[in-house]
Structures are given as structure tokens and as C-alpha cells.
Amino acid sequence: MKRKLNEEGVPExxxxxxSMKSGSKFETLQLDPRLMRGIQAQSWAEPTKVQLExxxxxxxxxxxxxxxxxxxxxxxxxxLPVLEKILRSxxxxxxxxxxxxxxxxxxxxxxxxxxxxxxxxxxxGQDIRVENLARTEDGLVQRARLADFPDIxxxxxxxxxxxxxxxxxxxxxxxxxxIDEADLVMSYEYENDLENISKSSPxxxxxxxxxxxxxxxxxxxxxxxxxxxxxxxxxxxxKDTGGVTQYVVRCKEDEKFxxxxxxxxxxxxxxxxxxxxxxxxxxxxxxxxLEQFGIKSAVLNSELPVASRLxxxxxxxxxxxxxLIASDENEVLGNEGRKKxxxxxxxxxxxxxxxAEKSKTSDPADAPVDDDQDGEKVTTNGxxxxxxxxxxxxxxxxxxDKDAGVSRGLDFRNIAYVLxxxxxxxxxxxxxxxxxxxxxxxxGTAISFVVPKEHYRKHRPxxxxxxxxxxxxxxxxxxxxxxKGKSIQPLKIDDKRLEPFxxxxxxxLRAVTRIAVREARVRELRIExxxxxxxxxxxxxxxELKQQLRxxxxxxxxxxxxxxxxxxxxxxxxxxxxxxxxxGFIGMGKSNENRIRKARMQNKARGKxxxxxxxxxxxxxxxxAKGRGKK
Length: 631
Hints:
The chain has helices at about 35-40, 50-60, 75-90, 105-120, 140-145, 155-165, 180-185, 190-200, 215-225, 255-265, 280-290, 305-315, 345-350, 355-360, 425-435, 470-485, 495-510, 515-535, 535-540, 545, 575-580, 595-605; strands at about 65, 100-105, 130, 150-155, 175-180, 205-210, 230-235, 245-250, 275, 300, 325, 375-380, 385, 415-420, 445-450, 490. The protein is α/β, with parallel strands linked by helices.
């Protein structure tokens, strides 16, 4: 259903947003009974604040720009009115057309939103069909699914733009356009795709811009899609971040690993938790380190296939894993293959004096020294010299998924703690990270490791580039939290409790070499690719087997012992008869005859292995004193 236009063909201007009572139920929103049954199936007792404000305005056909934190119900705030309008339009027309597009920055978010939409329309029969185009599949498959004219298409802007260009997706009957996590969409370099979608969309399309922050990037989207939208800037009361107890631990670089090991061994951290690290190598280094002590964990990063990432999140929410190591490459330095923000840019965003920053980096002697690449320029003490030797080709790293994200938007449930193993580079990223815990009125803990500047690069094997600015970033985080009326408490290290565990640290870290990290990374990626591609159809046909697939197995190579594969008859229940009754798979050219017995029979026929003097001969009388020959 399109909005009402004025005489000049322009949507009517929206002046203000009416408010509703916070104690209202979903019945007051006058939704379709089938949607009400879907809401009840989700166990949603009451609408959230953003839902109470946005749904009535959306039903009037107005554009909405809403700022509300992650976990406050923004997804249902735009899904319910869109679904309601589609159901109402079905009463007047039975023709199936694509009328709604929902754009999200990452594949994981697209998959989660599609699942929520499908659960809400579970009692609508075939009246509403939802398609998720963010899945990695062939273009012909996408074209075939779009040819069926789904009512709602959920995807990233890149996939939508591609299908608009090749004619697989028709925007002629488009009535609703949603951009969720709009500020994050802009940070993923989707400007060209969004402009293409805007040009292809017909006039009068109702637009929803949902975001956790109101940044300057939203002005671009507002001018591109909206006309006089209602701006709903809601408080974060429902997020209940006051339930997060925040701590900061100042430690050395290698002590990060010691503290994590100690926390788990002493049961200081209980329940499910997310450990945020700087990059992908860092996540595998920490996983291999914990494996040496029998501590299992799962890794989540943008290098893994999208099907594996979604499956990891799904199983983590079902409590199959307790520890999830997440590498958030979009939030920290050391990002690979993605748009990066330097430390200087982050300081400028948060109001840091630019002149002060320039004074820090104006000296050419402070430039980084590159001693790993031959044939390149090296800066040392202000002088630029050419390195000798032939230039080496740069190795191409594995391709990362641009449409991946961890700290924003993903629906992690029942998180007891968040551990910032590597501190993010901005206070906004910190807020999004700790927002993974203490949701829906629960309590949680957030612990952040900070490396003082005097300890930076003092332990090379465990150093990480972004830790150089930990103290400056933490000062901004503390100031940002104090403005919200929250405090970050210092957590001191008890050396006496750490001392018994310290002697094992060096051996464990020494075993986790760069080669071991690289091999573990390749091995995990190979396993996940096999699971994601070749077994996808098998798991679709046998969903019960998918529950048995785990992602927290050990990555270390173990010694192969083939003899363990052979099970003797006497170990089987029922003895030899059971072995004969339960004959397993027998390969071509194989026989079930005992090969050892067969070899003995052949040797006996050849006269080998016979005792001199016959079976009953006395062995003491058959050898001479020197042990050679007969008497």
C-alpha cells in the first residue's frame, strides 16, 4: 500500500509522532489475528517502546527514521506494519508481486530477519512469502526464486542491486523499503548500490530507516529515500544496560592469555560468553591456547562461509557452546580486506584535537619500520633507504566476506559476560559489544583488558597493533559511560592466585606458533567449506543430523592409530555370533577371512614355522649349547 500524495505528487509532510501508553498490549495495535498468533508463538508479552511509537505511524503510511539501540525490538517495529499492510492488500487483489525490500548490512542479519518474518507469518498460509537473497548461491537459483514473486525480499544492498540490474527483481510494485542498521550499512561501502536502488524504486515508496545511532551518514540515506520522515529518537531504557557491570583490567600483553586461562580454570566466568579479539589470526591463537588446557571454544569470523556462521550462532543460542571467540574486523585495527579506520580518524570522530594528533605523527622518525619485505623503502631515523634484494610477491590472504558482522545486530541470547580481549578503537564499538549481554532485564558482566603504553611490544609473540592506544581509547570509553551515568570499575590482579598458573603460560604460548595458527586456520576453513557446500542438501533432508554438527572441536592434529578401527570379536556384545550377524560394509575385492589366520595356513603349507622333532618334542633336547642346530 503506497502513501497518500498531495496535489503536487509529494508525500504529505509529517510534523510530529504521537505517543502511546507504555503499558499498552499488542491488541491495541489492531493487527491481523494471524499476526497476533505469530506474536504469541514468539512469546512477546508486550510491545516495546519503539514498536509502540513506530507501528501506528507506519500504518498511516509515513516515513520513519528511528534511533533505538540493538535489542529493543526494531525488527518487529518495521516487520509488523509491513506484514499487516500486505495482508490487507491481499483482500482486494490476489495478484502476487514483490512489494517490500528489507536491506541489511550483513548476511547474518539478513538470515535472522528472514527467520523472524517467517515465524510471524507462520499462520498466514501462503498469503505472504519471504525470500532471503543473502545466501551464497548461484545467480540462476536466485533468479528462479525471484520469478515466483515473493512478497518480501530480505538481503544486503549489493545482492538487491545486482538483481535489479539483471532484471531478476522487478521494483514496479514496490511499496515498502526498510534499511535496518542504517548507520552500519553506510560503513560497509554500499553507497553505489543504494543509489542504484533509489533510482530503480518508484515514487511514493514508504521508507523505514532503523539505526542504533543518528550519525551524519544517515543524512545521505534520508535524502536518498525519505521525504519529511518522522524522527523517533528513543531512549535506551528498555535495553537496560544498567544491568552490565563493567570492569577494566590493566595488564601486560602476555598476561591477557594468563588471565583468560585463570578465569576459566577458577570458574570466575560462568555461563555463556563472547570473547572479542582483534583479527582472525588472534582468534585462532586464543583458541589453540585454550585447547591445551582442555577448554573448548568456537570461533566466529568473516572468513567462514555464511552457512557456517549462521549455524554457529544458532547452536550458540541453543547452549551447545559456552565460549565464542569473535574476531570483529570492522571495529579494530588490523582489518583485512575491508574498509579501515585509523586511530586518528576515530579520534577525530570523537572530538579529539586534530592539531595535537598531527604533532604526534608529524615526525617521520615515528613512521613504522618495515623489515619483512625485500626491495621496499624503509624509514629509520628520518632517512629513507632502499632495501637490497629482489622484490617479493605479496601473498594474497583468504577472501573475507564483506557482508559479515559480529558486534552489531546479531541476536545472541543469554550472554552472561563479554570479554574485550582486544579493546575496540572507539567508544561506540565498545557500547555495541557490551550490548550483547544484560538484555531483556537480565544482568551481565563486561571485562576489558587494557595494556599500558609502557608495556606495549614488550612481549612480541602476543603483541597486537591496536593495544598501543588502549589507554587513550579507555579514557574516552570511561568519559562516554559517565555521561550515561555508568561507571567502569578497576579490577586488580591478584598475583598470589595467578602464580600457580604462571609457570604453564610460557610452554603453552610457545606451542602456539605462527605456523600452528596458519594450519589451524586453513584446516577449519577447509572443514567448514566442506560442511557448508557438499553437505548442505544432506542436512536439509536430514535436519536432525545438523544438530550433531559442532564447531568447537580441537584443531590440533593427533597421531593416527589405525589399529583402533579394528574391533575384536570378543569385545562385541554376544561374542563371535554377534559379529557374524552384524556384518558391516565390505568393499570391492575384500574378503571377510582373517588375514592373520590365512598367512599362518600358507606358512604351514610351505613348511615354515614348524618345530624340529614334531609337536611333542622336548625343546630342551632339540638345541645344542650354542643354540644352533640339532644334537
